[in-house]
Amino acid sequence: MGAGLSLAIPSVIVVVDIAIRVLAVVFVPKNRRPATAAAWLLAIFFVPYVGLIAFLLFGSTRLPLRRRRKQAQINRYVMNATEGIELATERPSWPTWFASLTALNRRLGAMPLLSGNCARLLGDYERSIAEMTEAVRSAETFVHVEFYILSLDATTASFFDALEEAVARGVTVRVLLDHIASLRVRGYRRTLRRLKTMGAEWHLLLPVQPWRGRYQRPDLRNHRKVLVIDGRVGFMGSQNMIDRTYDRWTNRRRGLRWKDLMVRLEGPVVAELNTIFLTDWFTETDVLLERAARQVVGPVGDQDLDCQVVPSGPGFEGENNLRLFNGLIYAAQRRIVLVSPYFVPDDSMLYAVTTAAQRGVQVELFVSEIGDQAVVFHAQRSYYETLLKAGVVIWLYRKPTILHAKHFTIDEDVAVIGSSNLDMRSFTLNLEVSLMIHGREFVDELRELEEGYRQQSRRLTLEEWEARPLRTAVLDNVARLTASLQ
Fold first, then answer.
1. What mean pLDDT is reported for the chain?
2. In this structure, which CATH number among 3.30.450.20, 3.40.50.2000, 3.30.870.10, 3.40.50.300 belongs to the domain 65-99+112-307?
């Protein structure tokens, strides 16, 4: 009997191995990009049990059905509330393709294009926090705070003081922070204690707490950075609310400091930005704050910008940001300037960027000379040869600064700024928010900022790249294999 059992166990293992592989071929490719499906199949075929467990944990790029239904409910609410309202009239200055892209954004993300807005760039890290702090100090009704990373430290202490002062004078302060991202930085519990002590209403975004019935793929994260005061002033962009070294001794040892970009908004578009917060609040609390959704529009200066907020993420059916970005890149006629700390495009974006360069559009890409995430950094580098051969100009922002800004400009007409990187994680796994702006004055301001980047960067040549050490090339190519799963 013992001999029979010893023979049966290997047979069972073989049968299970075969079953795992067969079922993987059937189920893994469903509704996935071929590259992503191939990466998962390779993992499962080489290490069946480990690969299967990893797939069960990380294979789904969609939020739970309950969350997706809430997003659809919000979309219907926004569409119905703005149905039939003349929100922005087509102008002679619009490029011929602009109206079709605003229609695409409306269809995918529900937000309409709004005119009559004012936008001001904030490219200095400490100054940006100071302006957000001052805006909170002016609050009369509510403050809505949403950050991927929210941390109480020496740099952000004044911001937390302003929140506490707002609560003390009767202002409603609501705070959302991403659970895993904020948990990974120092001072997480100190931050939560401060929020509780001051009396702010706060909740974790996408909490991974299975013991409380809260669970989804753990690396689906809310990457948005949003601040709204009274529905009249809003801030959004790439900057987290944390010290620019991210309060890590390894970053200080390497001298790493982050450079970000936020935009201060006034006008009707602030209501759209507030809707992003309200959507995430509803998702986490089941409370729809309709009274806080009211639009407050006052004098906004001499600008008259057309703006459209574009939400994206696994709560939507499509990759809203990727569709918009590709549409803009294909529409460009003269010049494209892309700025992203993590450039790991899918095939569609890689083709869009290289095709633009090959058809004579001047294409520039700003990335950092060094990286803070090794695998992503090396995966990004694996695309440089293709880009350089297509004619894309690559600028490496000099170390030790990490250029963390996320924006791009199309011709002299349109700019996009927000939280979204140009990588597959931001297209598929992260909840992001982008802002498309039409207005020559704003584009010119961004171009001045890009020129500042250029002065702090060095140009990467194809000759330099082809002469890199073999071991580096191998590491880049190996890291690229993980790109579809990041």
1. 88
2. 3.30.870.10
